[in-house]
Amino acid sequence: MSFLLETHPELDVAALAEAMPGWSLDEVLTWGFKTFGQKAAIGTSYQGSGLVIIHHARRLGLDFPVFTIDTGLLFPETNELKGRLEDFFGIQIEGLRPEQTVEEQGIEYGGDLWTTNPDTCCTNRKVLPLQKKLAKLDTWVTGVRSNQSDTRSHMKMLELYEFDKLREHYILKLNPMLNWSRQEVWDYIKQHKIPYNALHDQGYRSIGCWPCTKITSSNENERAGRWEGFDKTECGIHTFLGQNI
Ligand code: SF4
After folding, report:
1. How many A from CA of 142 to the centre of ligand 1?
2. What CATH number corresponds to the domain at position 190?
3. Which residues is 173 bridged to in the sheet?
4. Cα 209 to middle of ligand 1, angstroms
5. What CA–CA distance (Å, rounded) separates 54 from 162?
């Protein structure tokens, strides 16, 4: 299949998707930046693998924009980490914010929405801000790893999605960390002394908003501590795009 973005009609996404798992992280990121420049951006929640991507990009001189989704319900440790990472990498991290404050949301929905309808809460506070950002991009670089959860085990390193039918806007998702293990990620972070979330040292393995994140044991799925009590393992940012083409 040919790549459908008007700006890059020459790209054969299917052939690239097949070849890319054999490329190094440096090669994937270099290809992404040479092809899309700043229309490719790294999204991170400061979990391990996103930090590895940023470190590689900075070392290679690839000036990807970096963004995070600031739901207004992040742990203080996560908010504090943002500044440390900006200093360490010499970058600005754009915080994507929901339209409503937490208080405004509480008034509209009658309380703590994450306790009654976390899907709607995640849509309002994560998915919609991300959609606004992706509307301006060609490529979204993520830190997902295939062994984080069942949902993520089916992801590919390069995925093409129809983002906006009306505008014939397609977006590529680049998942260059897919085949890294948790151990490899953390060995890299420690080796390069990259700042990380202090909550990891308290036993948190996957960190999101404070109301929906619990400590898990090492024999549980990494994301088992998210949305405890609900049949939910994804906030929606990695699933709202539907089936990749
Ligand atoms: S993770 Fe929890 S608090 Fe955060 S947006 Fe989703 S439901 Fe709301």
Report:
1. 19
2. 3.40.50.620
3. 140, 159
4. 6
5. 26
In short, whether 235's Cβ falls inside 6 Å of ligand 1 is yes
- Cα separation, 36 vs 40, in Å, equals 6
Q: State if residue 114 touches ligand 1 by the CB under 6 angstroms criterion.
A: yes
Look up residue 37 and give its two tokens: 């420049």
- The parent domain of residue 192 ranges over 13-225
Tell me the pLDDT of the chain (245 aa) as tens digits: 445 566 677 788 889 999 999 999 999 999 999 999 999 999 999 989 999 999 999 999 999 999 999 999 999 999 999 999 999 999 999 999 999 999 999 999 999 999 999 999 999 999 999 999 999 999 999 999 987 766 667 788 999 988 776 667 789 999 999 999 999 999 999 999 999 999 999 988 889 999 999 887 677 676 666 777 777 777 788 877 777 77
Closest atom of ligand 1 to CA, residue 126: 5
Whether 207 lines ligand 1, by a CB cut-off of 6 Å, is: no
Ligand 1 atom 7 nearest Cα: 118
In a domain, 193, yes or no: yes
- Please give the angle made by the CA atoms of 209, 212 and 217, to the nearest 5 degrees: 110
